[in-house]
Model the fold of this input.
Amino acid sequence: MTLTSCNLFKGSGIELEIENNSDHPITDVKFTTTEKLSVIEFKKIENNKSVSEFLKMDKNRSDGSYYLEFKRSNGQNESKEYGYYTNGGPLDNKIIFQVENDTISARTSEY
Done:
């Protein structure tokens, strides 16, 4: 019951967590949906640090995916598409992205 109440208080959306497990900071981090109606941005995430934020999806209406974009310290742009939402609503409570030196993995979590 508590989780439901918490989600109602926040509105429609999904919790995001990004773990930077790489050896270097990442910059210009953006997280959004296919519809790009709301964006979470972090200027920099230091190596071996994590950040979290809630993406509001109150204005989303269609089906789509989530997108993570960032720049590595060597200037290389990276992106990862993950997950699915339907009729503007998330199917999961939380997405966790793990940034490694050479890969990006993602998983969902139920808090």
About this structure: Helices lie at 2-10.
